[in-house]
Amino acid sequence: MNKEELREGLKSKVENIKNGKVKSEIFNISRPPEDFGDAVELFYNDQEQCFKAVVFDPQTTVVFSEEKMNTIEDACSFIIKTVK
Fold it and tell me: What predicted TM-score, i.e. pTM, was given to this entire model?
């Protein structure tokens, strides 16, 4: 899967969150236990009209940070950059 295919798949999932079809979505790459990497859970806040991304360790569920984004494109870019 190339980056454009990945971005289109993400865009569809992010649009589903914004449209209320799903409450949230977790974006993560499966890794062996010895490899480290972050996961992102994405929500949409209708009142503030923005996305909220929670960055966490998928093995321990420790939350590292929370970020807000306004557009679908910003959310997709953030997920790609964070999850790698």
Answer: 0.85
Tokens 């991304």 found at: 53
Token pair 């992010």: residue: 14
Would you state the structure tokens that stand for residue 49, as one six-digit string? 């009209």
Torsions phi, psi of 71, nearest 5?
-120, 160
Instruction: For 15-33, give the DSSP string.
Output: HHHHTTSSSEEEE-----T
The answer to whether the beta carbons of residues 16 and 25 sit under 8 Å apart is yes
Measured at the alpha carbon of residue 31, what is the angle toward residues 69 and 82, in degrees to the nearest 5? 20
Mean pLDDT along residues 38-44: 94
